[in-house]
């Protein structure tokens, strides 16, 4: 969220509202669906899951650039991969250089280890 505010200050239109339900929202949804007797696959196709998915996808589709801030989960990786697959630039901001090499980060347009280098690159686009 702080990064979003800093990007706004640089003049970018930032969408980071996805964070509002909190980090456990998907898990709470699954637990709720299980109380209704639904399995994972059924829960994924339910009204709440589809509504939330379409909300996120709408905003991913309308954005010109994606930035995944690490650490990120599976959803963040899928979302950035989707954006890159749609031909949009996708960047990764790490807190520091990772100890473990992951070659698939080569799919990203670029990776950064500090905000200023990211900001400088974004200003050039």
Summarize, please.
Helices cover 49% and strands 9% of the residues. With 125 residues, it is mostly helical.
Overall description:
With 125 residues, the protein is mainly α. Helices cover 49% and strands 9% of the residues. It is built from six helices and three strands, in the order ααααβαββα. Strands 1-2-3 form a three-stranded parallel beta sheet, with helices on both faces. α5 links the parallel β1 and β2. The two termini are 22 Å apart. The model has no long low-confidence stretch (mean pLDDT 94).
- Biggest beta-sheet profile: 3 strands, parallel
Strand order of the largest sheet: 1-2-3
**What does the oligomeric state look like here?**
single chain
What proportion strand?
A: 5-15%
Assign the structural class, choosing from mainly alpha, mainly beta, alpha/beta, alpha+beta, or little secondary structure: mainly alpha
The gyration radius over C-alpha positions equals 16 Å
Q: Which key features would you list for this structure?
A:
125 residues, 2 domains, three-stranded parallel beta sheet, 3 strands, 49% helix, globular
């Amino acid at each position: 969220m702080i990064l979003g505010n800093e990007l706004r200050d640089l003049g970018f239109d930032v969408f980071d509202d996805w964070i509002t339900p909190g980090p456990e929202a998907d898990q709470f949804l699954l637990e709720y669906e299980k109380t209704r007797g639904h399995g994972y696959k059924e829960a994924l196709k339910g009204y709440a899951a589809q509504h939330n998915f379409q909300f996120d996808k709408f905003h991913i589709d309308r954005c010109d650039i994606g930035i995944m801030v690490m650490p990120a989960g599976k959803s963040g990786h899928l979302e950035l991969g989707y954006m890159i697959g749609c031909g949009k630039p996708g960047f990764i901001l790490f807190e520091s250089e990772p100890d473990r090499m992951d070659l698939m980060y080569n799919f990203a347009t670029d990776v950064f280890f500090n905000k200023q280098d990211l900001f400088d690159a974004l200003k050039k686009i």
